[in-house]
């Protein structure tokens, strides 16, 4: 009956899936839930939200690519729209659940409404499977069935509510009018409840009416966590089979003991096949974990290498900036010194030109004055010659005295000028010495040197040949 309920739920959810695909205008049709692969989830995402799945692999080549696409849909819904954590749902889990359902369909028959022998075979297989799992301390099949029922009931409850996005969509993807409340989920929910109530009521009837081989399975269902040894369980099965064989051999209505044993062996083979499938699932999960760890290590190494390259690039950039700044500073200092020297040279040329012009004017005035004085002397000498010869000697002596007095005055003035110049030079030297002890800047000393040379040029006496004055 548990398989009946599960198949009923699966058929109902297949109808829900096809109805949803039709309303989203997706050209897909599923006959069972195991056909809902990554393409179904991606198509529903793009049709409802109106945008592409981020980090989507267009042409998947392996099961890992399909799981990656499903995981991309789950992450986008959790981060961009629902704003809730969906870490309990992963693409690998959906893919493994789909494979698990396919294996179960291959092992168990699809129809549970067959003959009585088929139902007995299924009950024997379930009983043997639960017994072996109980001896190992695990109830994976029971837990998976309960988990499937819980998922179906919770999904049926969620389907009855209208879908509302956690954040408003943009105008290109926003629906023109609010969606109507879809009440089909309640119909599925009510039908699911009816099927569960039907299964429970049938289970109660089965607990009252015990058929041929239902005594030991019924007791095991009533005591699910009771630990029974393998020897005792085999002995009880043999006792029950022997009793049924005696009853059947007496009445001649039921099957022989060998047929029952073959059915039990077939059920045990199916149980062993289920165990192999579970082991393969565990190995597959282990390989997936190793693959994830290998990818994580590769990404970690790549991040380390990228960080190292970034550090090297930052160090090179810092060195280049420092070198450029230092070179610019040296060029500025060199340019400043060159500009100071150039200005000093130009000022010296200008001073030299002005002094040359002044000396030329002074020489012209001196020559004119000397010619005038000479002319006056010649005229006076002529007059003296004409007037008195005696006064000529007096004039000559007087002129000689005047020349001596002028030479003495010039010598005195020159001596005074030298003394003043010497004192001024001493003061400048002392001032330079104090400045040298106070400041060590090269440009400052260049400027002081330029000022000193400028003052010396202004006070210097230039000597030229007579060709400059002509």
UniProtKB/TrEMBL annotation:
Gene name in the database record: CEP95
Lineage start: Eukaryota, Metazoa, Chordata, Craniata, Vertebrata
Domain of life: Eukaryota
Protein name (Swiss-Prot/TrEMBL): Centrosomal protein 95
Source organism of this protein record: Chelonoidis abingdonii (Abingdon island giant tortoise)
InterPro entries, per the entry: CEP95, DUF5745
GO cellular component: centrosome; spindle pole
Domain DUF5745, residue spans: 54-92
